[in-house]
Amino acid sequence: MPTPLAQKIARDYGTPALVIDMDRVERNIARVQKICDEAGVANRPHIKTHKSPLLARLQIEAGAKGITCQKLGEAEVMAQAGIDDILISYNLIGDEKMARLGALLAETHVTVAADNPVVIAGLTAAAAAAGRDVPVVIECDTGRKRAGVETPGEAIALARQIKDTSGLSFAGLLMYPTETGWTEAQRFHDDALAGIRQLGLDPKIVSTGGSPNLKNVGKLKGATEHRPGTYIYNDRMQVAAGVASWDDCTLHVYSTVVSRASPDRGILDAGSKTLTADTGGLDGYGLILEHPQARIARFAEEHGFLDLTQSNTRPAVGDVVRIVPNHVCVVVNMSDEVVMVRGDEIVGILPVAARGKLR
């Protein structure tokens, strides 16, 4: 049977609904701030997970030095809410973005990332529009093969370009080591730093990330800050990575069982438009807390297909269940709002203010 809270959420807001436990949110914020403080590095949380100025302010009030955004649109939302120390950890390209970045820089302290000469050259337009220098960190690939220069020599060359470009200032290095690649990241850092110092430059920022690396915070000698994001909510991926427990997972998707056509299967009203198709490398698409052996096996847009063959308990039509998603960041981006609770009480609705900011 659904809990009284689940029944109230289903009655008042309908399902599927995203629900966050604010007591757990605050506990997660405090826990990770303590990890960073004890490691002697600043906490610069990534807002890509919650996309909420209110939660970003809670993180800053707990001790975070500023925030990280992945998109310019996210940074604009946060700046409009009065947040004044923002790192955009993504290459920005094009006249439209340079005009917006210039307007943002004129009012807010913003640092941007770059990993190639084209991005660096384009940033001069933003500097001219803002009437102030653009601080730039060089993104370095330390094993993920995503964005970032692949060699220390390339990082040194970009630092030289920044130094020689009017309107830009070298701010430091940005890294996202793999969970087991910190020795290699240290070697990259040390080699790049030696060459950068020969240019007469010194990084003010050496930034590492993210939540899966919370167990490695402080391992990189010379790091000044860390960029965790998912930790504020956590998900199945973070539990699998060993950096969170189920009790640390504060966002649950409340979903109603709408069909039980046979004993071994059922249908949820949360499909790919809610839980998304991102498995995070895990089996199924979320953990149902009330029926942990049940498997969310596949999706249609509005249908979650339940495989109940291994489940000792089986939900009935009309039951409201709580799901821990595989990858919470993409789930949040699919919703306009989340329901905030404390214990069994609903305490408010939180807009996902920076959702859908694709650029």
Q: In brief, what are we looking at here?
A:
Belongs to the DSD1 family. The protein is α/β, with parallel strands linked by helices.
Explain what this protein looks like in three dimensions:
With 359 residues, this protein is an alpha/beta fold. The protein folds into two domains: 132 residues, Lyase, Ornithine Decarboxylase, Chain A, domain 1, CATH 2.40.37; 212 residues, Alpha-Beta Barrel (TIM Barrel), CATH 3.20.20. Helices cover 32% and strands 25% of the residues. Helix 6 links the parallel strand 5 and strand 6. Helix 7 packs parallel to helix 8. The longest helix has 18 residues. The radius of gyration is 22 Å and the shape is elongated. The two termini are 43 Å apart.
